[in-house]
Amino acid sequence: MLSCLKYPPSSCNSPPHPLNYALTFPPNHSCRVQVLRHLTGKRNRVSALTSRCQAKSADTEKPVSLDNENDSASSTTSSTSTSFLSFLCPLLKLFSQGDPSQARNYNLEFTTSFLSTLARFPWGSTAVTDSLNNQATISSDPPQRLQLFEFEACPFCRRVREAMTELDLSVDVYPCPKGSIKHRELVKQLGGKELFPFLVDPNTGVSMYESGDIVKYLFQQYGKRSPSVGLLESTLLTGWMPTLLRAGRGMSRWEKATPDMPPKKLELFSYENNPNARIVREALCELEIPYVLLNVGAGSKRTDLLINLSGNQKVPYLVDPNTGAEIGDYKEILAYLFKTYSLAAA
Ligand SMILES: N[C@@H](CCC(=O)N[C@@H](CS)C(=O)NCC(=O)O)C(=O)O
C-alpha cells in the first residue's frame, strides 16, 4: 500500500473531499459562477467561484465578462457535441459488450484499445518537455491535488486527461458515468450543470467547465506554456475514435456497482494513451469509484515510485488502500474491481 511517506510531502495533504465542497458551497443557483481572470492576456479565461461562494482565488483581478466570440463558439460546440453524444449513447450501448463484469474477449479488448491508442498518438503518452526552449518543464504537483469530474468515454474529458499526462500532474478523478448516483449531482451543485469535464483546483479556487479552457489553464498554471501542438485541435478529428472503438465502455454506470464509496481512494498508476490502463479506467468509471490518477508518462517524475512499488515501470498498476491489494495485470485488476465493488460483495 502506498503510504504518505513514499510520496513527496506536498502530495500528502489531502485535498478537501468534494463532498465537503458541497457543504461549503451552496448550490450554484444561489452562487453565480463568474470569470475572475484572464490568463496571459491571450483570452484564456478561467471561471472561479466568487467570494460569495467562499472560494479563495489566487488573485483578485476584477471580474471580466464572458462575452467574446470564442465563448459563443464553444457553447455552440458544447450543445452540438452533447446532443451528438446523447444520440450516439444508445447506439454505443447497443454495440458494447454488455455486462462489463462478465468474461471478456481480451483479444478484442486489447485490439480496440490499441487502435484507440494509435488514433490518439502522440498525445497523452509522455511527460512532455518544452520543445520551444528545449527544456524539461515537467511541473511539480501542486500542494493540493486537482479534482476532475469526467467520464472515460467523453472525448473532451480525454483531452484534459491527455494534458494532465503531458504536464505530469496527478489528479483526484471523480467518475461521472451516465446513471451516476454520486458525482454528477455534486457537479450540478458545484457548477450548476451536468457537463463534463469539470475541473476543481483547490490551490487557486478555480473551478471550470470547457475542456479547451481547462487545458489552457492547466498548461498556463502548471506548465507555464501553451498546450502542446495539436492537442486541442486534434480532439475533434480523432478524439472520438477511442469512444467509438471502445463502444460504450467507460460511459454508463454498471447497475450492480456498489453504491458505497470506498473509505479511501484507490490509486492508479496510468498514462492516458496506454491501452491497458484505458481498460482499467473504463472499469473504475463504470463502477463510479473515485481514485487518485497517478500519471506516469515517459519521463515522469513518478517512475521511480512506480518501480519501487511494482518492480517495473509498467502501467496500469492499481493500489487499493482499503484492502491492501496491489495489482499490475489489467485483467486481474478488472476481475478484482468487479468482484470487490459489486453489490454482491457489499
Ligand atoms: N465544449 C465542451 C463540450 C463538453 C461536452 O459536450 N461534454 C459531454 C460529454 S462528451 C457532456 O458532458 N454531456 C452531458 C452528459 O454526458 O450528461 C467541452 O469542450 O468541454
From TrEMBL:
SUPFAM superfamilies: Thioredoxin-like. Residues 144-226, 264-345 form the GST N-terminal domain. InterPro entries: Glutathione_S-Trfase, Glutathione_S-Trfase_N, Thioredoxin-like_sf. GO terms for cellular component: chloroplast. Residues 50-81 are annotated as: Disordered. It holds the Pfam family GST_N_3. This is GST N-terminal domain-containing protein. It comes from Erythroxylum novogranatense.
